[in-house]
Amino acid sequence: MPTIDDLISRLNLLPHPEGGYYAETFRADETTNPGGRYPSDRSTGTAIYYLLTPDTFSGMHILTSDEIFHFYLGDAVEQLHLFADGSHRMVEIGTDIVAGQRPQMVVPNNVWQGARLKPGGQFALLGCTVAPGFDFADFSMGKRADLVKRWPDATDMITALTRD
């Protein structure tokens, strides 16, 4: 099993602004702007490697595109989704399908999300595919107080997945 340092070095991972480490592996040359929803054209799709470690987490954020997580290697991940109707759900991304984990998870556009390793985990190597493709202009980090106010039943996980 590779170490965290092996993964960072061999996959050329860099710190991600939301937490964890990443490397873009694909950006489609073709562009789109469905319904003029974006301020400018976007790639039709992008993909990254994404690594979580015990001292990192994916901070609560929102995208204006759909995002698909793919589990590759390591330990399971807990992911929080906050929906516009005030509901929330916790999902697990991993390989123990019998226990309810899924090796692939879709986060629809405009759904708040954040993730961390399940307690005791050493690392998780994931892939993230975004369509239309990821652009930092379509990405916003969440503020703890604002999220807790809208989703009070998810306060503990929101607190764990925010830095303020």
UniProtKB/TrEMBL annotation:
<dbReference type="InterPro" id="IPR014710">
    <property type="entry name" value="RmlC-like_jellyroll"/>
</dbReference>
<dbReference type="Pfam" id="PF06172">
    <property type="entry name" value="Cupin_5"/>
</dbReference>
<feature type="domain" description="DUF985">
    <location>
        <begin position="6"/>
        <end position="141"/>
    </location>
</feature>
<dbReference type="InterPro" id="IPR009327">
    <property type="entry name" value="Cupin_DUF985"/>
</dbReference>
<dbReference type="InterPro" id="IPR011051">
    <property type="entry name" value="RmlC_Cupin_sf"/>
</dbReference>
<protein>
    <recommendedName>
        <fullName>DUF985 domain-containing protein</fullName>
    </recommendedName>
</protein>
<dbReference type="InterPro" id="IPR039935">
    <property type="entry name" value="YML079W-like"/>
</dbReference>
